[in-house]
Amino acid sequence: MNSAGARELDRLSFARSLPLHLFTVHGLRRTFNDLTRRAGADGMVTRALTGHVTEAMTAHYSTVGLDEKREAVAGVVRLVPLTKTVDRTVDGDRN
């Protein structure tokens, strides 16, 4: 068996071991919303794929992951200097 076939068997074996009774249609919808958003898909495309009519409904089914929150905070830290810059010139003289 080639490596692609072995990977497929591993994938199927893993899928069979999942507790499918724990998955819900709404949970899968939320996951799909999050994945399309993280993949950079336009909101209109996500709504077309999920059948949502409004942005509010798409937002209702979306969650923000911890990694996304960390990236956002890191972005803010990059924009805001961590130390206060002090103007040490006397009367505007920069010599």
Structural account:
With 95 residues, this protein is mostly helical. The protein has a domain at 20-79. It is built from five helices and no strands. It is elongated, with a radius of gyration of 24 Å. The model has no long low-confidence stretch (mean pLDDT 80).
Give the proportion of residues in helices: 55-70%
Mean pLDDT score: 80
Number of strands: 0
Main sheet summary = none
Structural class estimated from helices and strands: mainly alpha
Between the first and last Cα atoms, what is the distance in angstroms? 76 Å
Shape summary: elongated
Q: Helix and strand string, N-terminal first?
A: HHHHH
Unreliable parts: none
CA-based gyration radius: 24 Å
How big a fraction of the residues is strand?
A: under 5%
Number of helices: 5
